[in-house]
Amino acid sequence: MTVNSAVNGAAGDALGGHPPGGTAARQARELLERERRTHIAELGLLEGESAPDEAVMARRGTLQSNLEEIDAALARLDDGTYGRCEDCRKPVPEGRLEIIPYARRCVVCQQRRR
């Protein structure tokens, strides 16, 4: 099952949300928590660098930022808004959530913010 089908599938309401305690939410949570563990593990590896260069420091910043986004996505799961664009309120496309499971916006709305 894909993230989007889990989030916006038959268990969803008319707007594409889902009950926070439902199967879809559990599956999305598992994916996000797995992503979170991976980021934490990679951060741990970077912490072991004796003399971090600019690339290591940039990667560390990206990982920390992504962890914040993952935590925000987990909070959206709790309130039933995960998988819904924060701007236009339409479902975030399946492919986007497969690549970036913590995405807040659909591609169109994200591009408007740049």
From TrEMBL:
<feature type="region of interest" description="Disordered">
    <location>
        <begin position="1"/>
        <end position="24"/>
    </location>
</feature>
<keyword id="KW-0862">Zinc</keyword>
<feature type="zinc finger region" description="dksA C4-type">
    <location>
        <begin position="85"/>
        <end position="109"/>
    </location>
</feature>
<keyword id="KW-0863">Zinc-finger</keyword>
<dbReference type="InterPro" id="IPR000962">
    <property type="entry name" value="Znf_DskA_TraR"/>
</dbReference>
<protein>
    <submittedName>
        <fullName>TraR/DksA C4-type zinc finger protein</fullName>
    </submittedName>
</protein>
<dbReference type="Pfam" id="PF01258">
    <property type="entry name" value="zf-dskA_traR"/>
</dbReference>
<keyword id="KW-0479">Metal-binding</keyword>
<feature type="domain" description="Zinc finger DksA/TraR C4-type">
    <location>
        <begin position="80"/>
        <end position="113"/>
    </location>
</feature>
